[in-house]
Amino acid sequence: MSAIVSLRGVSKVFPVQGGKLQGSKRTQRAEPVRAVDDVTLDVEEGTVVGIVGYSGAGKSTLVRLLNGLERPTQGQVFVKGQDISSLPEGELRRVRAGIGMIFQQFNLLKSRTVFGNVAYPLKVAGWPKDKIKPRVDELLEFVGIADKAGTYPRRLSGGQQQRVGIARALANAPDILLADEATSALDPETTRDVLRLLRRINKELGTTVVVITHEMHVVREICDTVVMMESGRVVETGPTYTVFADPQSASTQRFVSTAVHGTPEPDTVTRLSAAHPGQLVSIGISEAAPTPLVAATFERHGVGSSVVFGGVTEIQNKILGTLTYELTGSDAAIDAALADLGDVTAVERQIPTAARAERAVPHLPVPANAGE
Ligand SMILES: Nc1ncnc2c1ncn2[C@@H]1O[C@H](COP(=O)(O)OP(=O)(O)OP(=O)(O)O)[C@@H](O)[C@H]1O
Prior knowledge:
Layout: E1 3-14, E2 20-22, E3 27-29, E4 33-44, E5 48-52, H1 59-66, E6 74-79, E7 82-83, H2 89-97, E8 99-103, H3 114-124, H4 129-143, H5 158-170, E9 176-180, H6 188-205, E10 208-213, H7 216-222, E11 225-230, E12 233-239, H8 240-245, H9 250-257, H10 266-275, E13 279-285, H11 291-300, E14 304-315, E15 318-328, H12 331-342, E16 347-350, H13 353-360
Parallel strand pairs: 5-10, 5-11, 8-9, 9-10
Antiparallel strand pairs: 1-4, 1-6, 2-3, 6-7, 11-12, 13-15, 13-16, 14-15
Residues 14, 33, 35, 53, 55-61 line the site of adenosine-5'-triphosphate (ATP).
Protein name: ABC transporter, ATP-binding protein
Organism: Paenarthrobacter aurescens (strain TC1)
Function: Part of the ABC transporter FtsEX involved in cellular division. Has ATPase activity.
């Protein structure tokens, strides 16, 4: 694999307008905004990459640097081997023609039909009229809205509008498709359809897709690689499964917890332990510790087990999640089984808060007149 886009030590600093902020008594000098801060990154050709981070992390600025809409203050941006950081505007336009882009609010031309919207970039690129119609028909067919060619955007659902946006972005057969929060305005089912379409574009057309999102389920569904941003910096990057299974930074851990099952909250533990008298233990389920291995370990030690909480999900065709089991059997057998499992995965005993507090209180000698 080779990198289709590379960033080398890229920073983007926005000067503050006017240079000064008015304080109540004194004039304060405001700091310039370091939107992207010394980012070095490779986007491998033919992959789907997710750029993730909270609002203000610098994701949109990073993407605007990728397609030359912003010039770096420092560092270099290479697209297909060419340093675009200092290209004149005319040449940048040519580079941009090879990069499609879709947006959260679709950005369609309201006064043009679906056909007109998709035909637009072809006209701008100087396609002859007789070639435009078959190309637009082919694109609308590909994204599944051939029957809407004569419809105006306002008559379409959000999902259909995004399909038009995708068809338009694909018109000039780009090698790279940038999707900036492209599903954030859509309901969950429509989001799934659009993500499936993006996956298909990647698989069937070989297009490299860069997805900007703050939603980890989007990453979980389609991304091969995750790039986690915080305060303009890349704080973590890696294959999606690795990042989900073993997130390193605190913010990645927070993001991941929104899209994979974790351990129960304290009040849930209290409720579960009232309903289940056995020992409650949460076990990390992964490639290293799939459910059959966990079940076999309990069986080998003569421990009874049933799942009472949690779930598993599939990421890059591999299983990941956390299951909380109620275990029954002798303490020694349970300890031995958990010791075995502890060698391969995360094991956490779940003790209700009240019982925890009780255990923490030292056993004081009971005064002779207690209870009187
Ligand atoms: N043109 C600009 N001028 C000044 N500051 C800017 C400009 N563009 C972005 N910023 C600032 O740079 C930082 C990063 O913004 P950016 O939009 O890249 O973040 P983001 O992660 O995409 O956030 P969001 O998810 O809200 O879009 C923010 O503090 C933002 O206010």
